[in-house]
Amino acid sequence: MTDLLISIMCFVITLGLYYANKKLYRQRRTLLLMPLVFTPIVLVVLLVATHTSYQDYIGETHWLLWLLGPSTIAFAVPVYENMAVIRRHWMSLSAGVLTAIVVAVSSSVWLARMLTLPEEIQRSLAVRSITTPFALAAAKQMGGQPDLVALFVVITGVFGMAVGDMLFLRLAVKSGLAKGAGFGAASHGAGTARAYELGAEEGVVASLVMMLAGVVTVVMAPAIGILMW
């Protein structure tokens, strides 16, 4: 089988499964059938069944991962269109972003240390709460493992999107701004998508917080590495 044919098959199967999964999820909204959960599970089963290595698969579909960058930047469009909201709440948003970064990084690293996990996993977990393009850039400066980083980011996003509404209900959080900020800071792209389902204001705030948290974490990555290790 030629490399071109393998590349085309990986592309068609990945996108085909994803869109079929989205259609299925619209009919039955359960956690297991979420596209970010069910599609990867099916892909792993197919790779194992066909004896295709992860390296071969990611090598043929790496440009799909690259598209995460432009798609993340696309969230800036609604942010730009709602600058009035940002100007009104810039101080609370700034404080929230810094608090989210400190809590996410420190809690991840210290919990990993309590569980005596290897340092490579600690460094990879440190950036789990920011979206993939930023997480990979930050982890590179900290010495994290790209494959582990991508896995931890996806798990964090799916978990945050799945339990976010329940947590807000339990904590009696009713503010749309607070919900948007929480989703954007804790579960990045997946949480931001959920925030837009709640409302435009929630989505805009989630987009802004997600991007700011990613940029600040990348900029501070060398300092974080020195302080934590």
Automatic annotation (TrEMBL):
Q: Which Pfam family, just one, is annotated for this protein?
A: LrgB
Keywords attached to this entry: Membrane, Transmembrane, Transmembrane helix
Chain segments annotated as transmembrane: 6-21, 33-51, 63-80, 92-112, 148-169, 204-228
Report whether Transport shows up as a keyword of the record: no
Which InterPro entries does the record associate with it?
A: CidB/LrgB
Asked whether the UniProt record includes Transmembrane helix among its keywords, one would answer: yes
| Membrane topology recorded in Swiss-Prot or TrEMBL | Multi-pass membrane protein
Q: Which PANTHER family match?
A: INNER MEMBRANE PROTEIN, PUTATIVE SEROTONIN TRANSPORTER
State the name under which the record lists this protein: LrgB family protein
- Per the UniProt entry, what species is this protein from, by scientific name? Rahnella inusitata
Q: What is the lineage of its organism?
A: Bacteria, Pseudomonadati, Pseudomonadota, Gammaproteobacteria, Enterobacterales
